[in-house]
Amino acid sequence: MCKGLIGRKLGMSTVYSPEGRQIPVTVIEVGPCTVTQIKTETTDGYNSLQLAFGQRKEKRMTKPVQGHLRKSGLAVAAALREVPVDNPDEFNLGQVISAEIFNVGEKVDVTGKTKGRGFSGVMRRHGFAGGKKTHGSHSHRIPGSIGCSAWPAKVTKGRRMPGAYGNDRQTVRNLEIVDIRPEENLVLLKGAIPGSKSGLVIVRKTKFAK
């Protein structure tokens, strides 16, 4: 069985349980994905499927990628990603996999790229408390002392400093599937996931469901 699919974050909404409880959900367009390559433990050292998702302009794709996609009957694709499988012999090139591999109530892990926040200071980037705001203090938002005195006389690696914030790959685990609408290729997950609207994500069946 395929353990994950590529999707696109559409935004957040609200649904209500039969008991009337309000549930915040993230709506994801999951699939349909086309199998473009099958990797086996014999030839590649591990079992997985390479999946294609979405559409893009043909002029924005390189000739080698277009030739690779033609083997599975595709002309273009917005994204190519790999997902693990137990038995790759169950799949064929060009096979289409949809959101029907998931079930309501199942737990999944979602991987995406967080929103880019640009250059940010330590209070926003790392949650520093900031300095005093009275008695003539001029250190409201600066990081404070960043180095040592006489020895080793340098800033140590890993010191939390201002810099680029966001635009990182992040995984949120154990999100519950609240609803699945296969006719629209939609999956509704309880809670929030990383990324902005229309951002690409990978939805995988979790290994460590609570």
**3D shape:** extended
Helix content: under 10%
CATH architecture of the largest domain: Beta Barrel
Structural domains: how many: 2
Largest sheet: 6 strands, antiparallel, barrel
User: CATH homologous superfamily name of the largest domain?
Assistant: Translation factors
Total helical segments: 2
The helix/strand series, from N terminus to C terminus, equals: EEEEHEEEEHEEEE
Text of the CATH class of the largest domain: Mainly Beta
Mean pLDDT: 90
Query: What is the straight-line distance between the termini?
Result: 21 Å
The amount of beta strand, in percent, is 35-45%
**How many beta-strand elements?**
12
Low-confidence segments, given as residue ranges, are: none
- What is CATH's topology name of the largest domain? Elongation Factor Tu (Ef-tu), domain 3
Strand order of the largest sheet: 1-2-11-10-7-12
> Structural class of the secondary elements?
mainly beta
Rg, alpha carbons = 23 Å
